[in-house]
Amino acid sequence: MAIEIRETFQVAAPIEQVWSFMKSPENLAGCMPGASITQLIDERSFIGTVKLRVGAITASYDGTMSFIKLDESAREMTLLAEAREKGGGTVSGTISASLVAQPDGSTEVRCESSTDLTGRIVQVGPRHDRRGFEADNPEVCRQCERHVGDGFRGGTRHG
């Protein structure tokens, strides 16, 4: 199943701070419910897990994510993700983000993702189709917005 998602959200922090936050794999994992980093390979690649639940099916994926684009001057990044589940399912795709400084000092974050899923989690029946996965994406954006915003309130960076 191919899933394409685009979201935009605002963070009440300057672009430099938001960029610094988003370049950290640990910070990004904190924005995704069920995700964790298990090993840093280098400054651009890491190993982790993510658990997804759709209906009665829960799947745990182990894999890698790598920054394939990290443009400091344009404040743009792209991550490549590839993972497998023990039951044979796979997930692969890209996640891109670009940051735009706003006149009020806040930052607009524009995200796009393109993901392919296979395996039992996408075979749970017609009532749990792509809309279920797409409905979760605003939650990821809200988590990211909250984590980034909370990380810089009062000038203190968390995470």
Quick synopsis:
This protein has 159 residues and is α+β, with helices and mostly antiparallel strands.
Helices and strands, with pairings:
Blueprint: E1 2-11, H1 15-22, H2 25-30, E2 35-40, E3 45-54, E4 57-71, E5 76-85, E6 90-101, E7 107-117, H3 130-152
Give a written overview of the molecule:
The chain is α+β, with helices and mostly antiparallel strands. It is 23% helix and 47% strand. The protein contains 3 helices and 7 strands. It has helices at residues 15-22, 25-30, 130-152, and strands at residues 2-11, 35-40, 45-54, 57-71, 76-85, 90-101, 107-117. It has a 7-stranded antiparallel beta sheet. A hairpin with a 4-residue loop joins strand 2 and strand 3. The radius of gyration is 16 Å and the shape is globular.
